Amino acid sequence: MRITQGTFSFLPDLTDEQIRAQVEYILQQGWAPSIEFTDDPHPRNTYWELWGLPMFDLKDAAGVLMEVRACRAQYPDHYIKINAFDSTHGFETQRLSFIVNRPQTETGFRLSRQEVDGRNIRYTLQSYASDRPAGQRF
């Protein structure tokens, strides 16, 4: 199952040149890129681990790609994404996010059904990857 989070997630994986073009766009907009990674891609897990600090004063896309390659080398079987934060007054939010690395095998999710009080039914989405301890999921 292919995880579809962020921009471009329905497209084939971006090449490094395509990633560079997107990072150049981020920098042209004056947004601050940052890199995050995780081995638990649950849709509600919006706070992935931060790789380094956000790069507020960066002017060259090569710096971001260098950090992406370092993160890939450290965590080759994790999801890695690039975020773009807009600090402009009135926005102060993330404007763009896209995945730049995936594990070779994406395990997917299961839907658990649970009967609770009365006739209520509760559904829970759980990642198969989270069945194993962190660091051993992929």
Written account of the structure:
The chain is α+β, with helices and mostly antiparallel strands. The chain has a domain at 16-106: 2-Layer Sandwich (Ribulose 1,5 Bisphosphate Carboxylase/Oxygenase). It has two helices and six strands. It has helices at 16-28, 61-74; strands at residues 32-38, 49-51, 79-86, 93-101, 109-115, 121-127. Strands 2-1-3-4 form a four-stranded antiparallel sheet. A hairpin with a 5-residue loop joins β5 and β6 (121-127). α1 packs across α2 (61-74). The two termini are 13 Å apart.
Please supply descriptive tags for the structure shown above.
two-stranded antiparallel ribbon; RuBisCO_ssu_dom; Ribulose bisphosphate carboxylase small subunit; 138 residues; Ribulose 1,5 Bisphosphate Carboxylase/Oxygenase; four-stranded antiparallel β-sheet; 2 helices; ribulose-bisphosphate carboxylase activity; calvin cycle
CATH architecture of one domain: 2-Layer Sandwich
Helix content: 10-25%
- Secondary-structure element pattern, one letter each: HEEHEEEE
How would you describe the shape?
globular
Low-confidence parts, pLDDT < 50 over ≥5 residues?
none
CATH class of one domain: Alpha Beta
Q: Roughly how many Å apart are the termini?
A: 13 Å
- Write out the strand line-up for the largest beta sheet, numbering strands in chain order: 2-1-3-4
Helices, by number, come to 2
Mean pLDDT level: 92
Q: Over all CA atoms, what is the radius of gyration?
A: 17 Å
List the helices and strands and how they pair.
Elements: H1 16-28, E1 32-38, E2 49-51, H2 61-74, E3 79-86, E4 93-101, E5 109-115, E6 121-127
Antiparallel strand pairs: 1-2, 1-3, 3-4, 5-6
Helix pairs in contact: 1-2
InterPro entries: RuBisCO_ssu (IPR024681), RuBisCO_ssu_dom (IPR000894), RuBisCO_ssu_sf (IPR036385)
GO biological process, one term: reductive pentose-phosphate cycle
Family: Belongs to the RuBisCO small chain family.
